[in-house]
Specification:
1 helix; transport; mitochondrion; respiratory chain; Cytochrome b-c1 complex subunit 8
Length: about 70
């Protein structure tokens, strides 16, 4: 059973749905909804992340200056 194409296994109680690729819209509303949403999400998070990261990067790493004279 299922060894070659003439004896394929019988699949029962499985329902599959498909939509033709010619009927799908790959990027619907990218410019009208997608880009404004990206900007909204970026601008809402940038002021939460950047100040802490700036303070962390502003400090010197003492390990970089161990061998200086």
């Amino acid at each position: 059973m299922g060894l070659h194409f003439g004896n394929l296994a019988r699949v029962r109680h499985v329902i599959t749905y498909s939509l033709s690729p010619f009927e799908q819209r790959a990027f619907p509303n990218v410019f009208s909804h997608g880009l404004p949403n990206v900007w909204r999400r970026f601008s809402s998070q940038v002021f939460k992340v950047v100040p802490q990261e700036f303070e962390r990067l502003k400090r010197k790493n003492p390990a970089d200056y161990e061998h200086d004279q």
